[in-house]
Write a sequence for this structure.
């Protein structure tokens, strides 16, 4: 579907100049943009490539002389990344999800399916489950008994929603996400190495775990707010007694894992391969970079940003930028790393000084 540049600018609430009637079929990188493409040149470094392309219209930074670039029209981007988000929504590819229940789907007679919902092929909807209005549930999804999912949700192929899970409106789960699996909670019948480690002690010599581990069943569920997105193959375990919770507007990347009883606040970003240990609390507006690991029973304050691969093993106050393992303030981590890089030279100097001292002592 094509849109005029006027329609695009209006949708983006952005300023536009030039020929507003130009029809555009989709966005493109500046160097490969065609005559019917909207060239994305929000970064000044891409402006020069426009002159070699066939682009007639582009999104450019404020103050750009777009006519000198050979363009016929331009949209101005005060916040480039946000504008890109809007552009991709305008030209988004429609998902094939016709309203109704596919003949191969199984929907328990006690389940409630909202108006204009789409239930795809080989979907399973369990007893007393509730699916909201305008839901799109794609193929091979399973929704267990007593689960409740709000309006306008989108469950991609292979998503698993466990029993008693409660999810708000406009929820998106990417393929193979699992929400409401059993928590990883086991305990030894007698005190062992784990108990010693928790107490900050070394295991007793000869200590042997004789009787394996007893399972602690997860009686809680998972409760998720509105406007939450879960990435592909991510998992959220249900709580041991109370629910594991995720606040409104939080977004999780692929392969993220939340343990049992975890509480994640509103409008957080959890990047790929983040792992949060059981009973930890992540406050509002926290950003955890890729592969960040959070130990169990840790509290992370509001507005904390953790750089990728940080290891968080103790409480973090609000409004901190941290990195490293163990994670500390970013500036302290940088200074520590600088000192670490100087260690080989320092060791060489100490060796040289030691040799000099040895010679002096030998002369005495």
């Amino acid at each position: 579907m094509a849109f005029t540049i006027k329609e695009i600018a209006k949708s983006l609430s952005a300023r536009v100049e030039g020929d507003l009637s130009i029809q555009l079929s989709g966005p493109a990188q500046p160097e490969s943009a065609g005559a019917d493409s909207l060239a994305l040149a929000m970064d000044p470094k891409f402006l020069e490539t426009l002159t070699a392309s066939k682009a007639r219209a582009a999104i450019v930074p404020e103050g750009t002389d777009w006519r000198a670039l050979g363009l016929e029209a331009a949209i101005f981007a005060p916040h480039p990344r946000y504008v890109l988000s809007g552009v991709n929504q305008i030209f988004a590819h429609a998902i094939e999800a016709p309203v109704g229940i596919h003949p191969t789907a199984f929907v328990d007679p006690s389940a409630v399916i909202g108006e204009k919902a789409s239930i795809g092929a080989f979907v399973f909807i369990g007893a007393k489950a509730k699916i909201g209005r305008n839901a799109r549930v794609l193929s091979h999804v399973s929704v267990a008994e007593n689960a409740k999912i709000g309006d306008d949700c989108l469950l991609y192929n292979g998503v698993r929603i466990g029993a008693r899970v409660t999810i708000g409106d406009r929820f998106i789960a990417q393929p193979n996400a699992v929400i409401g699996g059993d928590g990883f909670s086991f305990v030894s019948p007698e005190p062992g190495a784990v108990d010693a480690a928790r107490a900050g002690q070394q295991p007793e010599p000869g200590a042997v775990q004789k009787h394996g581990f007893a399972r602690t069943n997860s009686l809680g569920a998972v409760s998720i707010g509105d406007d939450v997105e879960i990435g592909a193959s991510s998992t959220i375990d249900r709580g041991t007694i109370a629910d594991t919770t995720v606040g409104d507007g939080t977004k999780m990347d692929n392969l993220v894992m939340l343990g049992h009883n975890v509480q994640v606040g509103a409008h957080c970003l959890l990047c790929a391969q983040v792992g949060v240990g059981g009973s930890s609390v992540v406050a509002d507006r926290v950003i955890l970079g890729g592969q960040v690991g959070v130990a169990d029973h840790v509290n992370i304050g509001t507005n904390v940003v953790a750089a990728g691969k940080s290891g968080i093993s103790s409480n973090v106050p609000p409004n901190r930028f941290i990195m490293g393992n163990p994670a500390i303030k970013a500036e302290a981590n940088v200074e520590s790393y600088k000192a670490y890089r100087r260690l080989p030279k320092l060791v060489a100097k100490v060796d040289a000084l030691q040799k000099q001292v040895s010679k002096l002592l030998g002369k005495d």
Observations:
- The longest strand covers residues 37-40.
